[in-house]
Specification:
The chain is of the alpha/beta class. The chain has 10 helices and 8 strands. The protein has helices at about 5-15, 50-55, 60-85, 90-105, 110-120, 130-140, 150-160, 185-195, 205-215, 245-250, and strands at about 35-40, 45, 125, 140-145, 170, 200-205, 220-225, 240. Helix 9 (about 205-215) links the parallel strand 6 and strand 7. The chain starts with a helix and ends with a helix.
C-alpha cells in the first residue's frame, strides 16, 4: 500500500506531527556563535532550469511530468531509506524520471533522458549566493554541503558555478547509505566538523529537510525561496528567510 508523503516523513523522523504556527519572514532573533554552516544543495543551486527543460521537451505535459517527477524523486529516497534498499540520488532521480514518463504515457527517448539528467550537473547558483558565501567565509565560518546529491553531482555544480574552494567538506548521504531525514545522514556533518551541534547551522531548502535537521538537533535556517508553508511534522526551523542574505542576518555576519 502506498504511503502518503507526510506519513512517510513522520515515520522516518519518528515524531508525531502537530500544528505549527505559520512561518514569518524571520522567526527568531539573530543567533551568534555559529562556527559552521551545512547546506543542502538547493539553497545554493537553482533547480528550476531542470524543470523548464522538461516542459520544453514535453510542452503539452511538461507541468504534470515535472510535478510527478519531483514527487517520485523524493518518495523513492524515503522508501529506499525505510526499506534499507539504498541507491544513490542520481540513480533515484533517473528511476523517478522513467517512471513519471511511463505514467504520463510519454515517449522519453534516450536523448531526452540524457538532457534532463545532464541538467542536474550544470545548475547555477541563485543570484546572491556567491557574495553571501564569500562573506561567511571571510567571517571565519566553515562551509560544507550535506546533501542527498552524490558527491559527483555536487562537485560538477560547484565547478560549473565557480564556487571552488568554498565548501569543505563536501558530504553526500551516500556516505551514510541513507537519505535525509534519516538521522545517520545528518550526523555526517557533526562527524566531519568535530564541533558541538549548537555551533553548526543547517541551511535547508525544503520544509521537510528543515524539520529533519531540527529534529536531529541542529540550529536550523530554512531558506524558503519558493514561499512554501511549514510542514506539519512537529519541528520547525529556528528561523526562515527568502535567501542567503537573510541567513547572513541570522548568523550576524
Amino acid at each position: 500500500m502506498d504511503l502518503e508523503r507526510r506519513d512517510l516523513i513522520k515515520n522516518t523522523l519518528g515524531v508525531a506531527g502537530f500544528s505549527l504556527a505559520a512561518a514569518s519572514h524571520l522567526m527568531a532573533a539573530p543567533r551568534p556563535g555559529i562556527r559552521a554552516v551545512l547546506f543542502d544543495a538547493f539553497p545554493i543551486f537553482d533547480p528550476r532550469p531542470v524543470f523548464a527543460l522538461a516542459k520544453e521537451a514535453f510542452p503539452a505535459e511538461g507541468d504534470t511530468l515535472v510535478d510527478l517527477w519531483r514527487t517520485k524523486q523524493f518518495e523513492y529516497t524515503w522508501l529506499r531509506t525505510v526499506a534499507g534498499r539504498y541507491r544513490n540520488f542520481w540513480d533515484v532521480t533517473r528511476d523517478a524520471l522513467r517512471y513519471s514518463a511511463r505514467a504520463r504515457k510519454l515517449d522519453l527517448s534516450p536523448a531526452d533522458e540524457d538532457r534532463l539528467m545532464g541538467a542536474y550537473l550544470n545548475l547555477k547558483p541563485w543570484p546572491e549566493v556567491p557574495a553571501a558565501l564569500h562573506k561567511l567565509k571571510d567571517a571565519g565560518i566553515r562551509l560544507a554541503f550535506l546533501s542527498n546529491f552524490t558527491r559527483e553531482m555536487l562537485q560538477a555544480n560547484i565547478r560549473n558555478s565557480g564556487l571552488e574552494g568554498l565548501f569543505n567538506p563536501i558530504l553526500s548521504t551516500d556516505q551514510a547509505g541513507a537519505f535525509k531525514p534519516e538521522p545517520h545522514a545528518y550526523r555526517l556533518g557533526l562527524d566531519a566538523f568535530g564541533l558541538p551541534r549548537e555551533e553548526v547551522l543547517f541551511a535547508a531548502f525544503a520544509a521537510w529537510d528543515a524539520a529533519g535537521a531540527k529534529s536531529f538537533g541542529y540550529p536550523t535556517f530554512w531558506v524558503n525561496r519558493l514561499n512554501q508553508p511549514v510542514e506539519e511534522l512537529g519541528y520547525a526551523a529556528d528561523a526562515t528567510g527568502a535567501s542567503l542574505t537573510d541567513l547572513l542576518v541570522y548568523v550576524k555576519v
